[in-house]
């Protein structure tokens, strides 16, 4: 192969993934075997693998190897009655979620401003990971007042939805007041939890939940794998995770 041999390796591996010859979760052969198969040096092979990892087709696990990723591209509708699980099910994708952590913390200044409370107010912080067909696609950090929802952390850890917790505390309905979306590089921890390359961008979505009387009841920040999601923005909005 010539000076652009890495491109031929990239395109060949990408084609195999698209044809289903390399299935999600399968591990690629070790470097020496791949170099011999394609007739390239390690530099060209590593560049091809890096490009495929940036595209979300491969996942490199330090000390374990390189695995096929090829996660589905999800269209996530942000709308008045759209929900995480329903978004995925409508596209033939199986949704699931994992509780990662919950704790009570003093409100950081930016969160206090969103929730309209004083900085330092005791808040629940709940961290969860969303998956599509078993592949991580999002990390969600939710903030709620402890005095308003004293049992929220423990109930979220037990798998109870935010909607059910709101209802149990006298809030039968809620709406998305405001949504912001921006991109950035993930932190190393975020990249690891999302099983993506550290240089692949993430989409950060923040939202404010309000009750029907427009009283703010929750604030959340979600970090989405940028190569696995695209957003469709509809009027209004509510999520149930």
UniProtKB/TrEMBL annotation:
Annotated Pfam families: GntR, UTRA
Key words of the record: DNA-binding, Transcription, Transcription regulation
Keyword field contains rRNA processing: no
Gene3D superfamilies assigned to the protein according to its UniProt record, in alphabetical order: Chorismate lyase-like, Winged helix-like DNA-binding domain superfamily/Winged helix DNA-binding domain
Domain HTH gntR-type: 3-71
NCBIfam families: C_P_lyase_phnF
Protein name: Phosphonate metabolism transcriptional regulator PhnF
Species this chain originates from: Plastorhodobacter daqingensis
Gene name per UniProt: phnF
